[in-house]
Amino acid sequence: MTEDAIAAKGWTARILTLFPDMFPGPLGQSLAGKALEKGIWRCETMDIRDFATDRHRTVDDTPFGGGAGMVMRPDVIDAALAAAMRDHAGPAIYLTPRGRLLKQDLVRDLATGPGVVVLCGRYEGLDERVIEARQLLEVSLGDFVLSGGEPAALALIDACVRLLPGVMGAEETLAEESFNTGLLEYPHYTRPAEWNGRKVPEVLMSGHHEKIRQWRHAEAEETTRLRRPDLWDAYQKRGA
Ligand code: ADE
Predict the structure, then answer these.
(1) What is the pLDDT at residue 122?
(2) Where are the beta strands (DSSP E) in the chain?
(3) Which fold would CATH assign to domain 3-161?
């Protein structure tokens, strides 16, 4: 396929998994689901097991050096990746707690490109040689361990899809910009104005737009300072 033909397909998530039935799963609902129906993006799964070469369709084996669990075979994964990359542009991502932490800037880069190939691991992991040979981009959602890469793939793809042109309305786009400031969001309130003895902050009822803007900004700063010293540091350095 030519570059143009690939681009004409729309933003495409191609997912290599042992559990293709997990997709699109929650991404078939709500914002991402509507965008999928409209053809703004495509969700394609490939069953890793289809690339096994033996009668039992084996995809994993015991680790050299001993230890618990099973390791996904490099030859099987390489064959699956070769097929996935044949008519697909965009980086190949391996979801693993050993990867670089997923941040909004990577999400933005991925959403701007033609799509992603996402490899979901199971068992103890993947033979290191295929990660090196295919120069997989290793990405982690955070310092916790999922039972497999699939829920992480769903989260990664969701984060990208909501940024694609035509997916969000104007209001939601503005909310995205507020994350761009490097601060956590200010708190939100709606009716009733008093609930279980708790009142909405007075300034929000004032109709004074500039005061409201200032209050929200101060709240965003304070929340960020208290909850995320790392983001607060980066924000202050950027301002300096
Ligand atoms: N697979 C298992 N745990 C994961 C995590 N925290 N992030 C990404 N992929 C994973």
Answers:
(1) 81
(2) 11-17, 41-47, 60-61, 71-72, 92-101, 115-120, 125-126, 137-140, 194-195, 198-199
(3) Alpha/beta knot (3.40.1280)
The pLDDT score that the predictor gives to residue 235 is: 96
pLDDT digits (tens, 9 = 90+) for 75-128: 999 999 999 999 887 899 999 999 999 999 999 999 999 999 999 998 789 999
Residue nearest to ligand 1 atom 10, measured at CA: 96
Write out residues with Cβ below 6 Å of ligand 1. 95-97, 140-142, 144-146, 149, 152
Beta carbons of 142 and 86 less than 8 angstroms apart? no
- Domain 176-239 matching CATH 1.10.1270.20: the answer reads yes
Ligand 1 atom closest to residue 144's alpha carbon, by position in its atom list: 6
In angstroms, what is the span from residue 149 Cα to ligand 1's centroid? 6
> What letter represents residue 26's amino acid?
P
**Best of 93, 96, 137, 143 to mutate for ligand 1, by most ligand atoms within 8 A of CB?**
96
